[in-house]
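Encoded backbone
================
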Amino acid sequence: MRGQRTFFFNLRIVYRACVRVLALVPEGSTPPPRLAGHPAKEIARWRMEFDLVRAMRDRGHEVTCVEPQAEITRVLDAMADRAPHVVFPMLEEFHGFVEFEPHVTALLELRDVPYTGCNPRGLMIARDKALTKTILARHAVRVPAFDVYPRGRRFHPPRVAYPLLVKSLTEESSAGLAHKSLVRDAKGLRDRVAFVHEEVRSDAIAEEYVLGRELSVAVLGNGRPRTFPPFELDLSGLPPEAPRFVTARVKWDPAFQRRYRIRQRRARLPPGAAARIAELGRRVYSLLGLSGYARIDLRLREDGVPFVLEANPNPDLSRADDFARAAAAAGLAYGDLVERILRLGIAYRAAWYQ
């Protein structure tokens, strides 16, 4: 009965012109009122937060930013003080652990507070790349074959043929990924697994290296999600001997991107391929129980067969990033996209309430 009352209360908020938003942002990422006077390196740290807060305030919403850091009481106090209609989590970790991100959202559910983005169960599943691949493979979705190398366990020979791509099991944003992550023998595998364990400080996954194009599908919605046109990370400018995957430099180094003409663009695909890949993105979103918004990353093999690499709920929402650009390609302007995400969060009703 209480869940039913909450649902109808949330629907009333959906139609309010102005809502109170509590934005949870990483330490040092509370954006200033304007960009002028700030160096590019500083802006890069809080660019997404700036774009989102500006878009919400331009729509007349009341936005308060809070940096929880390692203190969950800051979230509780802010909710008590501000009585937000919706919380907008912009955190990728809590207390230094990416594994704690779903727990912040779970706290909001326990407190009966609407929130934007993915539900905690979906966040937890997608955070584990091996679990994600296991679920998808069980439903006949093509994924790279893989082996998991947990910390504190003895090294074992791979059950997957070389070459292998070694990365963190749980970290995102290409953390620890470099050219050396692509290994071709046992020594390279052992060394790179040790690197992930010691430097990235996470379990490692070694997966089949699928040669092909790097695509992504942006998905938005709850019960009936929509997709935007597939985007491609163009790596054709890299040197011929360089492996084609998203290293940390490819993702985060502007000088490297300019030098090798690395850019995100709308994927040019054969007739019918874009629709099939979009449908695959929706299916992955549903199978993993995601909500709000997510980016599904794929590799399109040279023979046209797509392999799902991973799912990224609550991806970067900067105005210039691929999710917002994909929405724009479908006719959804940035301010409208942010507004839609807000309203989806307010209206979201977990399955167990139904």
